[in-house]
Amino acid sequence: MTTEREQIPRTLRVLWGEETRRTRGPQQALGLDRIVEAGIAIADADGIAALSMARLAERLGSAPMSLYRHVSSKDELLIFMTDAAPGPPPELPAGDWRARFEAWARALRAVYYAHPWILQVTTGRPPLEPGQLGWLDRGLSSLDGTDLSHPDRFEAVMTVLNYVRGEAQVTTILLKGGPGEGVDPFGPAQEYGELVARFVSPDRFPALAAALDAGIFRSDAGPDASFDFGLTRILDGVEKLIAAPR
User: Fold this and answer.
1) What is the spatial distance between Cα 222 and Cα 226, in angstroms, rounded to a whole number?
2) Tens of pLDDT along 178-230?
3) 98 with 145: CB under 8 angstroms?
4) The whole model's pTM is what?
């Protein structure tokens, strides 16, 4: 009969301190933290597709089989990496809820920009890891002192999270030059606009054609201006929700 503890994935038991990390044997100096750190470095530099247990072992100067003393599979490794890569949630500034909420959103965006591979990794379930829950907790705490109910606070945080994640996914994955390259959306965005303009005609896509003529892909404002626009509109909506009569 399966016990409740056995139903919880090993990654969660390790991250929550319910299971001792594997340290036995001659590779004790290797350690889970070192493996995770090396995996993050490879994914940051060359993309998640470049990460393999063989390449990770080569980077660490060990045999591939020695890694399995600490992680049972690449999927398990990715869970550990996703939990560790963001680091601790940001310290929120003094001030009103809006300044705190915006600071949290921008810090989250910085995580996705620094580690774009996170956007490609999914565990197939809501986050249960302490690192990810710490970020969620900090986002919710940014709304302390408002009259929003806890369900409304959660929905506001999830709305901002999904916006930030979507914006980062477009910028860091679809508009970047390639794995390991810095984000440079100006050139790729214009190239995309030129390609779209090649196929779009006013009779078939009148609104899009007008937008292209207006130079939506030729703006030199960059992704920050676009991000600011969307985030400001969301925060305006939260502000109206807070001010609405209860």
Assistant:
1) 7
2) 444 444 444 566 677 788 889 999 999 999 999 999 888 776 666 788 899 99
3) no
4) 0.84
In sequence order, the 6+-apart residues with CB closer than 8 A to the CB of 218 are: 190, 193
Token pair recorded at residue 125 = 């379930």
| Cα torsion angle, 24, 30, 36, 39, sign | negative
**Using one digit for the tens of pLDDT, what is the confidence trace for 75-133?**
999 999 999 999 999 999 988 999 999 999 999 999 999 999 999 987 667 788 899 99
Nearest residue to 235 via CA among 142, 119, 145: 142
CA-nearest of 82, 81, 77 to 67 is: 77
E strand residue ranges, the chain: none
How far is the C-alpha of 138 from the C-alpha of 94, rounded, in Å?
14
3-state SS, one letter per residue, for 189-212: HHHHHHHHHHHCCCCCCHHHHHHH
Q: Tokens 């197939």, residue? A: 124
Let me know: does 212 contact 199? Beta carbons within 8 Å.
no
Tokens read off for 100: 């705190």
Q: CA 236 to CA 241: how far, in whole Å?
A: 9
Q: Which of 84, 104, 105 is nearest to 34 (CA)?
A: 84
